[in-house]
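Why this split exists: single-chain examples teach little about how molecules sit against one another. For that reason, every record in the complexes split bundles all components of an assembly together and asks for one structure covering all of them. Below is a record exactly as it appears in the raw files.
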Amino acid sequence: MTSSSGAAPRIGIIGTGAIGGFYGVMLARAGLDVHFLLRSEYAAVRAQGLHVDSAVFGQLDLQPVQAYQSVAEMPPCDWLLVGAKTSSNAALAPLINQAAAPGARVVLLQNGLGVEDELRPLLDDSLHLLGGLCVTCVHRAAPGKVVHQSQGMINLGYHSGPAQETAAQQAIAGEGAELFRRTGLESAALDNLSQARWQKLVWNVPYNGLSVLLNADTSALMASQDARALIRELMLEVIAAAAACGYALPDAYEERLLKITDRMPDYLPSMYHDFAGQRPMELQAIYAAPIAAAQAAGCAVPRMQMLLQALGFLQQRNAQRSA
Amino acid sequence: MTSSSGAAPRIGIIGTGAIGGFYGVMLARAGLDVHFLLRSEYAAVRAQGLHVDSAVFGQLDLQPVQAYQSVAEMPPCDWLLVGAKTSSNAALAPLINQAAAPGARVVLLQNGLGVEDELRPLLDDSLHLLGGLCVTCVHRAAPGKVVHQSQGMINLGYHSGPAQETAAQQAIAGEGAELFRRTGLESAALDNLSQARWQKLVWNVPYNGLSVLLNADTSALMASQDARALIRELMLEVIAAAAACGYALPDAYEERLLKITDRMPDYLPSMYHDFAGQRPMELQAIYAAPIAAAQAAGCAVPRMQMLLQALGFLQQRNAQRSA
C-alpha cells in the first residue's frame, strides 16, 4: 500500500446503505480500520452505532463507529468501497478523489454494466478502480440498521488504473479478496470483470424488474408457472446478449440460478426497495446499458426492452407523485 | 327472418353488461323489440330500468325493460346479441340455443380470437353465428347503469351456419348492420371476420394488458414515451402475426390507432375493470389464442408472450386473494 506500507490498510465506506453497511461492519468486526462517510444517517449512526441483523451471523453491532459527515474530516483511505446507488457515482467522484490516499483502490460494490466506465474519467489517474460483485441478500431497515438474510460472497475484478500488467491487476484484486476473507466471507479475484458483470445480470435483470412490476418477492415469483417461464426467458436473453458481446457464460446457467433462487428466503431485490421508497431505480446500469450493448452486438432483447419500458413508465409516475 | 317474416325482428340480449346494455338500450330506443336476459342484476333492472349515461347521446333511460330471469320465460328471438365475457360462452351455449328462434342469428359482441370457433360446436346447426366488433368506450358503473364515453361503431361478419354462399352470408351480416344503423350508430357488414378480429386486436393487445400491468388509463399510457414505445412495439407484433396468418392489415395501422387513442378520453379498457373487480380476465381470447396462431404460423411474439405471462401471474394472485 502506498500510504500505509506495512501497516493495516485503512478502509473507507462511501455510501453506507445496505451493502456498504453490511460489508463495513463485517470488516470492522474482523479488526480492520474502517471509516464511514454518511449523510442523512450521520446523527443516528453517531448516536446509536451500526447494526446488522443477520440470519447467518446473528446480531452484529458496531459502536462507536468511525463516522464522518464530511469527506474533509476523513483520513486518507487505501481502499474505498462505494456502496451508493450507481446513479450517484458521478456526484460522488470528487468525494472519492478527496478521500483516497495516493494509489488507493476504489471498489464499486454495485450491480449492472458500465458503472466503472462511467466513473473512470472522473477519477484521479493515480487511483485503481475495481468492481466488487456481491452475492448477498441485504436491505436497510432503518438508519444504521441493515437486515442480512443470506449469503455474502464478494468477488473483485480490476477495471483500470496504474496497474497495466495482468499479474499486477490480479495481485490488487487478490489483496482486496484477502481483506474480505478476513471477515469469514467467501471472496476471490475475478479474471474478467465484464464477464462477471454479465453473469450477475442474469439474476438481476429478471428479479429486480419483475419484483417492481408485479409487486412480488422472489418466492411469489418462483411459485407461479407464468412468472417462472418469463424469468427463464429473460435469463436466456441476458445469456444470449452476453455471448453476443463475447462473454460465454456457464452452460445451463439459467437453471442453476433458478435452483439457487428456489432455495433463497423470500427476498425483495434492491430495486423493489428503491421503488417502494420512491427513490430512482438503477435502470441505466441494470437495463439500459446491457440492452445497448446487446443491440450494438446485433442481439435482440425484446423482453429486456419491454421490462425497461414498463419500469420507465412506473419510475416517471413515481417521480410525478412524489414531486 | 324465419320466425317473424315480415314483422319486426325480435332481439335478445344475452349478458347485459356494458356492451349488451349499451347496444340493447340503443336498439330499444330506436323502436326495436328488445328482450334482456339477466342474472344478478335482474331485480335492479326490473325495478329501476336500464340507463346509459352517454357523453355522446346524453342520458338514455329504458323503463320498463323486457327483462327475464330465466331463458324459459323469453320469447324466441331472431337475433341474439351475446355481450357476456368470452370465458362464459361455453356455459351460455344451452341458453342461446333455447332462446333462439329457428334460423336465428347469434352475434358475439366480443373481442379476441377464436371465440366463434369455440362456441360453434355447442350451437344448434340451424343457427347462424356472427361476430360483432364494437368500437366503443363503455363500462358498467352499477347494476343497470352503463357509462358510454365515446364512439359506438359496430361491424358484423358472418362466421358459420346454414348460409353457405358468400352472398347469403353477406346479406345476413348486412341485415344486422341495418338494424344497428337504425340506432344512429355506424354499422357495416365485414368481408372477413378473422381479418377484422386481428385488426381489432392491434388495439386490444397493448391497451387491455398494459392498463392492468401498469394500473393506468389510456391517457396516462399515451403521455409516457416509454409506454408509447412499448404500445407501438406490441401493435407491430400483432400486425406481423396477422400477416403471418394471412391477414394483411392496412399500412401504418399502428400510427392510425395511436392517433385515435390520443384523441380518446381517459379510458380504462374492459380488462382493467375485470381485474379491478376480481373477475377473470379474457386472457385466452385476447392473448393466448392469437399467440398460439402466431406461433403456429412461425411468427415470434415475445412481447405478447411476456404480457400474457405477467397478466397470468396477476390473475392467479387475484384469484388466490379473493378465494
